[in-house]
Each structure stands twice: as structure tokens, then as C-alpha cells.
Amino acid sequence: MRYQGKVAIITGGTKGIGAGCVRTFVEAGAKVVFCSQYAGEGDAMAAELSAKGPGEACFISCDVADVAQVEHLVDETVRIYGRIDCLINNAGWHPPHKPIDAFSVEEFRSLLDLNLVSVFVASKRALPHLRKTKGCIINIGSLVGSMAQLHATTYVATKGAVIALSKALAVDEAAHDVRVNSVSPGNIYTPLWQEAIDAASDPAATRAAGDAAQLLGRMGTPEEAGKLCLFLAAEATFTTGVDHLLTGGAELAYGRKTRKE
Ligand SMILES: NC(=O)c1ccc[n+]([C@@H]2O[C@H](COP(=O)([O-])OP(=O)(O)OC[C@H]3O[C@@H](n4cnc5c(N)ncnc54)[C@H](O)[C@@H]3O)[C@@H](O)[C@H]2O)c1
User: Fold this and answer.
1) Residue 140 in contact with ligand 1 by CB distance below 6 A
2) Strand blocks (E) in the chain
3) What are the boundaries of each domain within the chain?
4) pTM for the complete prediction?
5) Do residues 150 and 107 make contact, with C-beta atoms less than 8 angstroms apart?
6) Ligand 1 midpoint to CA 200 (Å)
7) Known catalytic residue: 155?
8) Is the C-beta atom of 37 inside 6 A of ligand 1?
9) What distance in angstroms lies between residue 208's CA and the mean position of ligand 1's atoms?
10) Tell me: the pLDDT tens digits for 1-39?
11) Which fold has domain 7-249?
12) Residue 13 C-alpha to ligand 1 middle, in angstroms?
């Protein structure tokens, strides 16, 4: 019951990392409002988690690329639960890999709306409530936001900006005792990762390369992402403006893997 009675908003909580966060927070006693862009997609999951407890979950459909829908998500949370203690900006997408020549300006602008502007909008709307509770914001960045990735200019740019926005907001909101951190996953095995496997010319080799990219020899799990976010929200009370790598050591030792099988 590490987050009992607290209220969290988790964007993109029906699958993958967001779903791991929703489950972990409900298990810790929190009331969680989560969304996806599809009407009704999370209703069954919300009912299942609320029945299990000890916290509860509530699904609201919201396309985070739409400003009015994000504002509605925040306002509804306050109407239903009366407060916000934690906002996890998780919803995002990684487009298929291609060189800059193949990306249109429109594709880049729409990815900025989805991965970056959504974080600004949700944070801005939630902050008046977070200041009252001395709550926190956790933004899901990416390891590639700081170390880059082949044929992913637009995605890398959005995630680098999420990490920078988190630090800038941490500076401003410290005066209100609101902490702002980012979590930057490396490879976490989620439906998004499965999309990349399915799109590859050699799916088995792509999965194996995904596992081999970490010192720990495997991808991380959505539950492990949920646990890190819960720690940041519930216990890491002297931590703000930090980008937390959740990578299994992928970036260490110049990328050289030292695990012995
Ligand atoms: N999986 C990884 O290895 C990895 C690594 C680094 C960063 N990330 C980041 O973590 C976050 C979650 O990734 P994931 O792998 O769990 O993805 P996923 O595709 O498995 O799940 C994404 C979730 O976000 C929701 N979503 C997508 N677009 C949305 C929109 N417009 N409005 C509302 N909800 C929307 C989806 O419905 C889903 O619930 C993303 O921001 C991603 O960039 C993932």
C-alpha cells in the first residue's frame, strides 16, 4: 500500500509500459485514471483491476495529440477523484525506421504533437492540482533520446526534447515542491517492440538482437517500468530533474556486452 489514497493519471495505459504502471500503482493502493486513443479499450482492464484492488482503475478514452481531449482527461480525473498526486506521460509512438529523406515534415510535426506537445499540455493542465498535493510528474523518454539510434531522427528528437522539458520543468516547479523526472527505457518488451519484430525481414534475429543489446542479456518488462515509476512517485522524495535509465546496462562499456552465457 505504498501509494494508498493517491491519485495518478497514466497516459497510454492499455498496453506495454503504461499498462505495467497502471497495474503497479493499483497494487500499491492508488486510484488510477488511464487512457488510450480508442473508446472503451481499457474498460475491461479497469474493471478487472478495480475488482482485484486494493486501489482502483478508471479508463477514459483520450487521444493525447488532441489538446482538448488531454484537458478533458485531467479535468475528469479531478471531477471523479478530487485530486492528482502523480502524472505519468507515457503515451507515445516510434515510427518505422527510415532515413531523413523518407520522413515528411508533416510526419515529424504529428510525431511532435504525439510524443512531446502532449507532455506539455497534460503537465500544464495538471500542475495547478499537483502543486496542491506536492505531487510529481514522470515523463517516459527513451535511452535513444540521449544516445540516438539509426534511422530514427524524428523519434530521437522528440524523446531528447522530453528529457530536456522534464529538467526545465523540474527547475520551475521546485518552488512548489512538485518533482519532475523522466524515465528513459532501453528495450522493454511491449506490443510496440513486437510491432518492430513483425515489421523486420528476419523477426527471430530482430528479437534476439533486442535481447542481446543489454548487459543483462534480455529486454526489460512493463512491470519493471511500473516498479521504477512507483519508486519515483512514492519514495524518491529528494529526486527531481533526473533522467532515470531503465536499460539493463545497454549503454555501458561502449556498448560491449560482458555477460557470459
Ligand atoms: N518499449 C520500449 O522498448 C520503449 C523504449 C523506450 C521508450 N519507450 C516509450 O515508452 C512509451 C510506451 O511505449 P510502449 O512500448 O509501452 O508502447 P505500446 O505501443 O506497447 O503502448 C503504447 C500505449 O500508448 C497508447 N497510445 C498511443 N498513441 C496514443 C494517443 N495518440 N493517445 C493516447 N494513447 C496513445 C496506446 O494505446 C498504448 O496504450 C512510449 O512513449 C515509447 O516511446 C518504449
Assistant:
1) yes
2) 7-10, 31-34, 56-59, 86-89, 136-140, 179-185, 243-246
3) 7-249
4) 0.98
5) no
6) 19
7) yes
8) yes
9) 21
10) 999 999 999 999 999 999 999 999 999 999 999 999 999
11) Rossmann fold (3.40.50)
12) 8
